[in-house]
Amino acid sequence: MGNANFYTRINHFSQSQLDKSIQQFILIAPVLLFSMVAHEYAHGYAAMKQGDNTAYMLGRLTWNPIPHIDLFMTILLPLLTYFGSGGQLAFGGAKPVPVIPRNYRNYKRGDIIVSLAGVATNVVIAICCIPLIMLTGFIARLSPVLSDTGAIIQTMLLFGVWINLALAAFNLIPIPPLDGSHVFKYLLPPAWALNYQRLGSQGLIILIVLLTFGRPLINLWFAPVIFLDTMASRAVMPFIIPSPWTM
């Protein structure tokens, strides 16, 4: 937690370290999956409110995670990033929700609202995790028999703060087709914006290059995530249940 190093590297684990990483990943996986599904659901819901029912008609406006799962982004990428980073990072994405922007009642406003809906949802989830951590600690102190369960829940919620802040920041990177590009393009002259959007076909390659060779820039971009996650951790510290999970 609190590490913005988004670069895959191979570490040599001892058996105990590997066991701990697997146990930790079991807690991270459902939080990451929920956060990614919420992100895509928000896109589809916002699109429907703006006049495009595509996601709803295709069965993607659902909290059922199965229609949102992509083999690489939802399963393989989180596994690779988590174990490749020595348990410091779990990152991935859900299958993008299909939208048809020309169906929006107001194209520009709809495009911006739909694009930022996922980011806003991740930020809201991160914020909601904080009082839930406090409430869990308060309940566990009233009923010590719930301490072990409460500690596991708190650990998942702590991951929830970090994961959702990281997802929000990542999706705001202004590289097509990430969400931030749908806002940034309106700041450009029309001719530039058209060429900028065409980068979407090479967007994944650009992101891989940036994540591989642009470490100082990426670390700077994620600096607010580290700061906010640190502030959140300090705020909830008095409510944390002492346990091997939370210490």
Query: So what's the overall shape?
Result: globular
Chain-averaged pLDDT: 85
How far apart the termini lie comes to 12 Å
Fraction in beta strands: under 5%
The main pleated sheet reads as: none
How are helices and strands ordered from N to C? Answer: HHHHHHHHHH
Tell me the helix content: 55-70%
Structural class: mainly alpha
Total DSSP E strands = 0
Q: Uncertain regions: pLDDT < 50 for 5+ in a row?
A: 1-15
In short:
The protein has 247 residues and is an all-alpha fold. It contains ten helices and no strands.
What can you see in these coordinates?
- This protein has one domain (15-239).
- By secondary structure, it is mainly α.
- It is built from 10 helices and no strands.
- It has helices at residues 15-49, 54-57, 71-84, 107-142, 147-171, 179-184, 190-197, 203-213, 215-221, 223-236.
- The model is unreliable at 1-15 (pLDDT under 50).
